[in-house]
Design brief:
189 residues, Beta-Lactamase, 5 helices
Length: 189
């Protein structure tokens, strides 16, 4: 599968920033944000060489597709036992630009570690995963604190009208010169 970055829906600073508190847990081995429709990895983190992230991401996309198709759930959250102490947590995330995204977290640990990771994952707002770069939606001190209202709008400066050097208004004497890209006018006798 190919990797791509979706400029509108994926944060430019990556999952490492958004999921910082979650990734500090030594039992979390890999994380991927996947486009469910195409199966492409939008962003990923593999902290401890847990295998091929493309295969893990493709499995997450397929799990969300099946859960949405069979169960009719628009926002499934799945836990899949992979054998031994390995588990894959998959959570559907709404994409502001279209179909769902899947957030896949690979955990190596007992059931209590999986449940702790699930609780932490639920604390991460969907808007923080698919919002694009923003400093207002980041973990602060290991916890998510979102602003109460919308971020303040930036004032749009008005462009200044063009002025000639020295502040004088431009004046034209005679006919203005043609733009350099145009050929000179033809002179017919």
């Amino acid at each position: 599968m190919a990797r791509h970055r979706h400029a509108v829906t994926v944060r430019a600073d990556g999952l490492v920033t958004v999921l910082g508190p979650l990734l500090r847990d030594s039992r979390v081995r890999a994380v991927a944000l996947v486009d469910v429709g195409s199966g492409m990895v939008l962003d990923g983190w593999d902290g401890r060489g847990s295998g091929d992230p493309e295969i893990v991401a493709a499995a997450a996309a397929e799990l969300v597709r099946v859960a949405v198709g069979l169960l009719g759930s628009a926002r499934p959250e799945l836990v899949v036992g992979l054998g031994g102490t390995w588990h894959q947590l998959v959570r559907a995330v709404p994409d502001p630009g279209g179909g769902p995204l899947a957030l896949s977290v690979l955990v190596d640990g007992p059931r209590s570690a999986v449940e702790r990771t699930r609780r932490r994952l639920r604390e991460v707002p969907d808007a923080a995963l698919a919002a694009g770069p923003s400093t207002s939606r980041r973990p602060i001190g290991g916890a998510w604190i979102l602003p109460a209202g919308p971020p303040p709008a930036l004032p749009h400066p008005r462009p200044a009208p063009p002025r000639a050097p020295g502040g004088a208004r431009p004046t034209f004497r005679g006919r203005p010169a043609p733009p350099a890209a145009l050929p000179p006018p033809s002179r017919d006798p």
